[in-house]
Amino acid sequence: MTPVCPFVKASRPDDTTSKKSGENSLKHQADSESKCPFNKKEATDSAGSSPKCPFGYDQNSFKIGPFSCVICQALLFESSKCVPCSHIFCKACISRFKDCPLCGADIEKIEPDTNLQDMVDRFIEGHARIRRSVSSKQGEETKESGQVVYEDVSLERGSFLVQHAMRAFRAQNLESAKSRLSLCAEDIRSQIEKAGDTTELCSQLGAVLGMLGDCCRAMGDANSAVSYFEESVEFLSKLPKDDKEITHTLSVSLNKIGDLKYYDGNLQAARSYYLQSLNVRRDVIKHNSTVPTQVLDVAVSLAKVADVDRNLGDEKMATDGFQEAIDMLESLKLDSEASGVEQRRQSVLEFLRSQVAEKQEQVETQVEATA
C-alpha cells in the first residue's frame, strides 16, 4: 500500500477493466510500488535505543505473532473463529475458504471472536506509545538534576500501521488496510495540529491519503477515492518540488484522479488532471533529464493526455503527443544493467507506435475508399 506510498510502491489491485483500450495499456506505468513514508524519519530518529515490542511487531522486524492472521500476515481485523476447529483468521480472509487453511477441517460456520478483537484493538491503540529517555545533552543534564525526560515514540506507530496496512492490502483484505491507514492518518493530523504543516508531516499524510484512495478505488468507491487523492494532492502541493519521491507521488495521485474521471466519462476533467501530472513531471526532468525512470514517466503522461485528446476528437494534438513521447523514448539511453527499465520502455513504445499506426491505417483506408 506507495507512492511513495508513503507507503506503497507495493502492487496495488487496480481496476481490471477500463473504458478505453489505450488507458488500460498504460494504467500501471505510472503507479510504481510505494515506499513507506516513515522511512526517512526512521533513519534520523533519536539516537536512543528503540523500544521493542514483546510480540515482535517492531517496524523493522515484523513477524507473525499471536495477534496475526496467517492468511494475510497482518494484524487480525474482524477476528473470526472457524467452527469446529476454533482456528482464528480475519473475517475477509477466511470467508474465501471452505476448509481451514491450518488444519484442513471442514468449516461448518464462522463466528466472530469479539474478545480477541478487543485485545487486538487495544494492542494497536497502545502500540509504540511507550516512552523512552531522550538521548541528548538536555536529557543528560536533567538526569544529573534527578529528573528524567521522556518522549513519545509515535513514529514507530505510524510505520507499524502502514506496514500492516500494506500486508492486508496485498492480501485483498481491503477493509483491514483502510482501517489501519485511517488510524495512521488521524495520528499524523494530530501531529500537524501541534507542529504545523512541516515538510515531513505533509509528505507522510499525502502518501497515506493516497494509499487510502487506492483502498477505496479497489473497493469500488470512486467518490471516496477521488476525495482522498485530491486531499493527498493538496498536502503534497505544499512541499518543495526538489524531492523526487514527493513529486513522483504527487504526479501519481493526479494521474489516479484523472483515471477515475476518465472511467466516469468526464474526459475534460481527466485531461486537466493528466495535464497537471505531465507538467509536474516536465518540471522534474528539466533538472534531471538523464534519469530514465523520470523520462519514462513524462512519456506515460504524454500518452495519457494524447489518448484523451483523441477521444475528444482533437486528432492533431493526439498525434503530436504520441509522437513526442516516441521521440523521447527512442532517444533515451539506458545502461546494460537497467533491464527492468528497458522492458518498461519497450512496453510503452509498443503502445505509442500502435496508436500512431492505427491512425495511419485509418487515413489510408479513407483515402482508398474515396479513390
TrEMBL record:
Gene3D superfamilies: Tetratricopeptide repeat domain (1.25.40.10), Zinc/RING finger domain, C3HC4 (zinc finger) (3.30.40.10). Residues 11-44 have a biased composition (Basic and acidic residues). SUPFAM superfamilies: RING/U-box, TPR-like. Keywords: Metal-binding, Zinc, Zinc-finger. InterPro entries: TPR-like_helical_dom_sf, TPR_rpt, Znf_RING, Znf_RING/FYVE/PHD, Znf_RING_CS. Residues 69-103 form the RING-type domain. It comes from the Eukaryota. Residues 1-51 are annotated as: Disordered. This is Protein nca1. It comes from Stylosanthes scabra. The lineage of its organism: Eukaryota, Viridiplantae, Streptophyta, Embryophyta, Tracheophyta. The gene is NCA1.
